Queue: 3 jobs
Job 1
Amino acid sequence: MRISIDMKAFKKISVAGLLALAMLVAGCGKSDDDGPILIKFPHVTAPGTPKGQAAQRFKDLVDERLDGRVVVEVYPSGQLMSDDDSLDALAFGEVQMIAISLSKLDRLTHKFQVFDLPFLFPDLSTVERFQASQEGMSLLDSMSDKGLRGLTFWHNGMKQFGGPIPMRSPDAAVGLKFRVMESDVLQAQVLQIGGNPQKIAFGEVYQALQTGAVDAQENTWSNIYSSKFFEVQDYLMETNHGYIGYLVAVNPEFWDGLPEEIRAELDTIVNEVGVWANEQASVINEDGKQKIIASGQSEVLALSAEELAVWQDAMTPVWDQFEGNIGAEFIEAALAARQ
Ligand code: LMR
């Protein structure tokens, strides 16, 4: 069975109506008697990014181990839909798997805002320890009533700022228009340094920078390189001030309806790919950074410990603003994951 959804109309339907409809149609990707199980897996980044490579590896391992019983179709670079639309499409059974930036779950739950708090996670190892903690693991299943279950987390990497001028200090950000993901924490973080935040979908960022709709942005080296943001940003500041990672998520009705041995194999593959992807992520990001430097199109500025401390002092007041939303125990667990 296939259905097609008008996303604009979809957003106007009540939540209760949505959930009822989602329950009805969630089985759309399931096998019928005459065909394999189809997993449509859209995402927004380029094939060479940490997420692009992980999604492709998931497909390759499914091909190898499930012998045609499951077919994975990966749609990279936002060619099928935006992240925002993919949340609706997953709830409706239009697609069966997504790997969405944790920042974009803001509209479903505030708990994931912990991942956006600036300077909370100093590196990817700390993020991994937090994700493996009781609090981190509890996040996976925190949105099942909204048509989405997390299977695991995959890394991208740490974020860097880019802009039209050197930004060694947050003073330089005053008055600049910053593109941010669809996250209230990221919006508040930019307001905190006197910038003007604009929530813009990933697929529209290059053009927004090129036309001057926004002046500045934050992203990982791999995204800045593969989506060519460095071509339209004169300066990139190595701030490592925040994290981008993904929730690999499925529709609970679809997932629970799969034959048990297939679901178990898919679970194994998703987790195996997660370990592999997390090992690759830093290498892919470093490679993107070196290619940007080699291009000479954008100047990469390393910041001193003193300069970074000023950024940190300027941005961390947003922690207090969001602690009530997130729950203090999540912030404490993240702090406990530091070494
Ligand atoms: C962004 O919108 O900047 C990122 O979420 C894109 C991604 O998926 O890495």
Job 2
Amino acid sequence: MIGRDVASSYDLDRLSIATLASHSALQIMHGAKAEGLRTLLVSTRERLPLYREFSHIIDEIVVVDRWRDLCRQDVVKRLRESNAILVPHGSLVEYVGHECAENIELPIFGLRTLFRVEASQREKMELLRDAGIPTPPSYSIDEDFEDLVIVKLPGAKGGKGYFIAMSSREVRQRLRELVERGLIKDPREALIQKYIVGVPIYIHYFYSPTLDRVEITGADIRYETNVDGLRRLPPRILEEIGIEPSFVVVGNIPVVLRESMLVKALDYGRRFAEATKRKLPPGIIGPYCLEAIATPNLEIVVFEFSGRIVAGTNLYVAGSPYTHLYWNEPMSVGRRIAREIRIAIEKNALHKVVT
Ligand code: AMP
């Protein structure tokens, strides 16, 4: 437990919440300040003009030439001197790489062994299935089928590099073309998943090790181009112009779930937390998200998860309908993270919330 050892040497009266200048950094900084903690931002030079605007919520900025410098000995030492707890977000692994994110000798508010699982679409789906959460059935490339499927290429991110097909023949044909065009190496790495017809919902959760409970902190929908624009065109025109749907995220839209769906949503959130405890002890710490399609039978079919704060929580910097119900005060996920750290300190249990 690299991070726990480092945290045990910290001056708890002078802790800092640290993160990379990207993704949900402003929310994380804002939340830490609201809880009376110090804040530290690691930023590249070109981002300074934005983040300097928010100097009232950022106590220190450590400037790096490249994101990977986060793992340089002198930068880690600098962060340790500020008693920094690193909050991972969607850009961390992407910007600094696995090697750095997994092994950095700083306390991480989160489960660092989950980073590797998150990098593999297959391992992710396996974890969800082990948790007993409904997932879309998937097909192997050798199977013959006639079904509507979504094919996820290795390394595809943010919905880029997905395609939809109607049969195994079509999938193989299109994968062959992609290999010929040099866009993918091994078609076996593509994940062929049944396309679930319904509406997407992204449910945000927070597992609190200090209170031993899962909280639903919000939900959002991603606004994806061009798929969310296609419905503006009549089917006749769509067929004629033959536009392929793509799923590139451009933003997030807030959504509240029907209250009757919360029972299932909470159950799946709890199952996920339990599965991580079983398979990757000590288990998830803090925020995560289950990404699902809700069908007309009100089934929630989960096709993906994120094991850390998601950008959709930026909608709720002043609190979400759910965090308000739990806390009766403006509680963003950023602030919830800082609150968890504060509760852990009060209970003399910081080791429970870092890895
Ligand atoms: P992801 O990058 O995994 O978040 O997926 C991008 C988008 O693809 C999602 O927001 C959904 O709209 C869609 N999607 C992914 N998997 C499925 C599925 N199995 N069935 C229906 N839609 C899906």
Job 3
Amino acid sequence: MEYWFYEEHTENVRWGLRIKNEIAHVKSDFQDIHLFETYDFGKTLVIDGTIQTTERDEFIYHEMIVHPPMLTHPSPRKILIIGGGDGGAAREVLKHDPQEVIVVDIDSAVIELSKKHMKFLSKAYSDDRVKIVVGDGIEYVKKHDGFDVIIIDSTDPVGPAEGLFKKEFYDALKKSLNDGGIISQQCGTPFYHPEELKNAYDLLSKIFKFVKPYLAHIPTYPSGMWSFVMASDDELKLRRVPEFETKYFTEELYYSSMSLPKFIKEYCHCNGDK
Ligand code: AG3
């Protein structure tokens, strides 16, 4: 019998992957987590019914949430990743030779599953500059500072990640950054949920002098059109060129990913001039 996983993209749209087998199913204290082996996308991590990452296209998301902020900063040393328990963002951060990378994820089950079954992501954890903290990212940010770059690699803004898209959290982020510090955050699909990007853009614009939304094409996420945002009090411009291996990100893409389609610019009232 054929076995499929479908994610509900809207009430009337669903998108599916044909499954070879289920590697694991864990109901943690926070989330319902499945790890599937799929035919076309390899290992696929699903949290609360939403695809988080797949072996085949994870590079796009992880490169794009990491390299733009890391190359905007003149010399990023201390990096904080909130969420990102799978280790994919940490793996990309290590390409910049930082001093210290702290990953704070609320759910140890994600970290353990990745360590056991997704070495292509969790190999970052064998580097002793990477420290894992299991806990609430919001509380962590309130109590720690001195970061050059903070990357918010969360699930959708419902459930455990809801607070990561609120003003109180953004205020705390600003306080925990060093001067010239930069944040990046994933902001969902502007095709189905432009309000997610608009909300983040509006709130961050009240707190930071410079805010830039940017896009990537991620085949396994709803609509394939995915948004991110960077924010800082220093101008957001490319300060260094990538001198490491990538599969999606290029120097050219740093700026081209910030060229937004008209419906997004109009909806978010952002012209790329902040
Ligand atoms: N975090 C963002 C995934 C959002 C997917 N949303 C969805 N499928 N509805 C990815 C975590 C990878 N480290």
